[in-house]
Specification:
This protein has 336 residues and is an alpha/beta fold. It contains twelve helices and twelve strands. The protein folds into three domains: 48 residues, lambda repressor-like DNA-binding domains (434 Repressor (Amino-terminal Domain), Orthogonal Bundle), CATH 1.10.260.40; 128 residues, Rossmann fold (3-Layer(aba) Sandwich); 127 residues, Response regulator (Rossmann fold), CATH 3.40.50.
Amino acid sequence: MKRPTQKDVAQRAGVSRSTVSYVLNDQNDLKIPISDETRQRVMQAMLDLGYEPDARAQSLRRGDTNIVGVIIPVIQNPFFWQILSGISEGLQESGYSLHLSHHPLDMQQEANTIRELTHQPVDGFILLAAVQYLLPRLTDYLRKSGRPIVEITGSKAEFDHVLHSYSSGTHVLLDHLIKLGHRRIGFVYGITKDVQGFDRLLIYREILAEMGLEPYETHCSESLEGAYQAAYALLQREDRPTALLVINDMLAIAVMRAANDLGLNIPGDLSVAGFDDIPFANYTIPRLTTVSGKSEESGRDAVRLLLRRFEEPDRHQQVVTTKVQLIVRESTGPIS
C-alpha cells in the first residue's frame, strides 16, 4: 500500500501543499495566517490517511536532527559500553537519539566511517577517545564539520572534554601495593597506540623511580591473548614481580589466568590490580582490585557538555574532571 504524501493530505483537506507544510512545521508567523479551522482540517486529513511526517526531512529543513554521533574506539571492552550506556541515557532524557560509529583502525574503515557520517547528519559528536587516536582524514572531517564536539579523554583536548584520567588513581593504587610490602611491581601495558594509557604508565615510572625501585614493564597488544602471553613470560622470571598493575580490567582477567596456569596463588604469590571497574571485576575468582573511573557518569557528563554547547555556541571551553576511586577487593594482599 502506497504511503500517503503531503500532496494526498492537501487534496483531502482542500488546501495547498504549502499550507500542509506550514501546519506540519507549526509556522505561525505567516503574512497570511492559517485559521484554526484550516489547521484542524489538515490535522484531520492526516489522521484519516494515516500520514506520518518524514522526521529526517523535517529536521533537515530546520537545520537540526536531534541525533548525536558517538564514535567508539573499541567494541570488545565493557568499559566503553558502560560509558556508552551513560551517554545513551543522558541523550534519551534530553530528547536526542544516538548514532554509533566504530573507531576506524585502517584507511578503508576510515573512509567508510566518513561516508557513514556524511549520510547520517548529526547535531554534534561525542568521541570516546581523544582526537589524536583518530586517523587523519576522520580528524579533519570532524574539525571541518562545524558541529560541536565533546571528547572523553585521558589528557587535555582542543574541544570541550571530560578529562577521564587515571593519574591520581594510579598514585593511590601504587601506594596501596607499597603499603602491602610490594617492591617488585610490574605493569602489563596492552595498547594499540603509544599515547594510550600514558596517564597510568608515566605515574608508574615516576613513583618507582622516586623509590629507587626497578620497573617491570611488559608491552603487548590490547588483546586478551597478548596480555596472557606477556604476563606468562614475565611471571616465569626468577625475580618475577610480586604485584602486577594491568592497564585495564579486561586484560587483568587474562593476567590472572596466566598466573593460575603457572600455579601461582592470587593474592598469596601475586597481587593483581586493574583499571575501569567493569562489571566482571566483582565476579572473578578472586574478586579484582581496581580503580573505578565512574564510566557511566563520564558519559552523562559528556552529554551535559554537548547540550550546553548547543545552547551557547560561543561559550569558553568546558572541562569536567572525572573523580576516580580505588576499590580494594580480594586480588591484592600483603607480600608473603
